Structure to design on (276 residues):
């Protein structure tokens, strides 16, 4: 198995520590990721009896949904706080601490591997894809999700507010956040990892994230994220107030009377390992 210390650079530490800190607030702040769980499991062909590795499991949304299908999931996350939440939500399920870049499992241990938006938070995402391939049994399925910026109201609101009002902030630099929004980038990473080229698929999923208040998105970004939370924490009070006002006004445009329905878009990329 790969050296588990290889990926522990400044960005790796930043993301791990940030999600550990944010874990108690994650479930009430980021239920948007749950909207893509079923398409992700479908893409990975997860069903009755499937041995599934849920990489970057967070509070366990994918593992929970997989277990409801009759699968046998193992959740893995690098942030201890996230594992605490996952174990509290699903005390009868297995969750282990580990690094997506160096999975603590032997080759061919699973029939499916998934990663729900975790690929956006890795120092070496291509290495993590290769690790997913390594632990798959022949013919096993792999799938991951990644945000798309275009036509994504959440991304547009945040980026517009920061472009207009935020001061630059020096945070540890990682891979481009929207790199895997490009289907060709997804294909390249999957092919390089050794997946069957003919099995590679990329699906665009569009849905709406319903938030209860116009302030909800700003509060989530301020308290329950990592990169954006660090940027907002470094702003002077008058800049932060202006960012808040801009984001609140942006969300208000999507008021449908009962809530605020933000259009969001993600890519679901999938492939199979060679074999039967």
């Amino acid at each position: 198995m790969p050296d588990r210390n290889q990926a522990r650079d400044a960005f790796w530490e930043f993301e791990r520590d940030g999600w550990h800190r944010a874990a108690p607030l994650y479930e009430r702040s980021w239920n948007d990721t749950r909207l893509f769980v079923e398409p992700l499991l479908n893409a990975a062909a997860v069903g009755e009896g499937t041995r599934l590795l849920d990489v970057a499991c967070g509070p366990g949304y994918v593992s929970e949904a997989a277990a409801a299908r009759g699968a046998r999931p193992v959740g893995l996350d690098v942030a201890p706080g996230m594992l605490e939440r996952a174990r509290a939500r699903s005390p009868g399920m297995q969750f282990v601490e580990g690094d997506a870049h160096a999975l603590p499992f032997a080759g061919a241990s699973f029939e499916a591997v998934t990663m729900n938006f975790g690929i956006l938070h890795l120092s070496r995402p291509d290495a993590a894809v290769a690790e997913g391939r390594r632990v798959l049994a022949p013919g096993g399925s792999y799938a991951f999700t990644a945000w798309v910026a275009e036509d994504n109201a959440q991304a547009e609101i945040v980026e517009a507010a920061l472009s207009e009002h935020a001061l630059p902030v020096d945070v540890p630099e990682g891979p481009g956040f929207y790199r895997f929004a490009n289907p060709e980038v997804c294909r390249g990473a999957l092919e390089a990892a050794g997946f069957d080229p003919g099995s590679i698929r990329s699906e665009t999923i569009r849905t709406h994230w319903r938030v209860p208040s116009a302030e909800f998105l700003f509060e989530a970004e301020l308290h329950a994220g990592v990169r954006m939370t660090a940027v907002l924490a470094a702003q002077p009070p008058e800049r932060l107030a202006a960012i808040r006002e801009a984001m609140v006004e942006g969300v208000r445009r999507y008021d449908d009377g009962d809530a605020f329905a933000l259009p969001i878009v993600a890519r679901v990329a999938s492939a199979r390992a060679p074999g039967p």
